Structures are given as C-alpha cells and as structure tokens.
Amino acid sequence: MAEQVRFPSSTGPMLTGVLDVPVGEVRGWGVFVHGFTLGKDCPAAARICKQLAAEGIGMLRFDALGLTDSDGDWGDGSFTVKVRDTVVATRFMAERGTPVSMLVGHSWGGAAAIAAGRDAQVGAVVSIAAPSDPSNVERHYDAVVDRACQDGSAEWLVGGRALTLKRDFVEDVRRADLTDKVTALDRPLLIMHSPTDQTVGIDNASEIFRMARHPRSFVSLEGADHLLTEPGQAQRAARIAAAWVEPYLG
C-alpha cells in the first residue's frame, strides 16, 4: 500500500515522497535515499522499498530538491543539502508517529545515508553501491563544470531533463568528505555492493568497510549492475537488508 506525503525540506521548498506501508504486521520504519539524479520512482528505490514493505518494514522514499515531484531547484541542492534533507525526512516520520529505525541509501544516496546516520539517530544504516568519495559524481557533469564555476551556473542535460548546475553545488560536492562521517557513525552499518559494478567500483565498498567501525557487515551482490535493474536484484538486496536489520529495529 502506497501513500503520497509532502514535507518541507531543510532549505524551505516542499519535498514529495511515497510511503510504502506494510499490509500486515509492521516490524519497523525506514527512509530510503535515492541516487544522484534518480528520484523516488527509479527502479532501485521503488523495488527495494516495496520489498522491504512486504517484509514488514515501512519505507519513505522521497524526491530530492527539484527532482520529479519535489519543489525547488535541483541546483540549489548539494551533498550537504541531501544529507540535511535525509535527517529532515526522519524527523517528519517521527512527527507522524512512525519513527525511523533504519536508513537505506543507494549509490550517492548511500553516501548521504552514511553521512546522515548519526544526526538522524536511527538504529542502523544500509548502503548499496555507495561511493566512498561523494565527489566522484563530478564525472557525470564534467562537460559543463568549468562553465558552471566560471559563470556561476550552467545548464546540464541528464536523462532528457534540463538541470542547472551551480558553482555552489560543485564546490560543496568537492568539499564533501565521508571519512569522518563513517568513523563517527556509531551505528551498525551494512555495506552491499556488486563486484561487477561498472559505475561505482567495488573498491569503494572496501574503503567504506575499512573506515567503518564494528558492528559492520558486507554482502556481495553478485550479478547485479549499479542500478539494480536486473530482475530480482533489488528485491534480493531488500530481503538481505530486512533480515540483517532485525536486531536494530525499534
């Protein structure tokens, strides 16, 4: 069962989300953080959250600033804003009477989930195909980054959409450092990654695991591509996460 929700972002504009609610007994609640420009309805987000709901864990997945159904300008976001909005999402869930026990993040959202975990005060964090360095996304917009830095902004076409890349966005991403966030997480961390990921290499998982403190776990998603588009791969990741998180559900 899905329910649409709206809540204010950390910068003011309203964010739109979908709450995937378990049909039967509710074991707990979580927030899903999507990848760089993917949105709440991308296959990885939708399939993982629906499977987690089927496993009894209700999930909120929401569009980042300026993407799909959320208000605002994507260019006014950044890694810092994504992290803050993740914390805001957990507070929204608590205020509606469904406090969050876990954060699940995919790709760039996995890095954001790790960075937000401590402030969000969740019981556990799950990262899927996450980069160890958030600035690795710059290669996606390297064709326009110089113009954005010189002129203050530049239009960037991605997936048939026109987004505005801004100098502040670029500079924020370049400053982003996951090292301190991983070591200070102080939460159980499950790292999932495919050894054949051609977008974010498996070495990123190794680096996050090396920096993390126990309890930490790693699961190899053999056969999966970065976006988890192969049949059953997103659902498999969700089932693994649902089993692993059991001791940490509030």
TrEMBL record:
Pfam families in the cross-refs: Abhydrolase_6 (PF12697)
Protein name: Putative redox protein
Molecular function GO terms recorded: carboxylic ester hydrolase activity
InterPro entries reported in the protein's UniProt record: AB_hydrolase_1, AB_hydrolase_Est10, AB_hydrolase_fold
Species this protein is from: Ruania alba
Upper classification of the organism: Bacteria, Bacillati, Actinomycetota, Actinomycetes, Micrococcales
Domain AB hydrolase-1: residue ranges: 31-230
Record SUPFAM superfamilies: alpha/beta-Hydrolases (SSF53474)
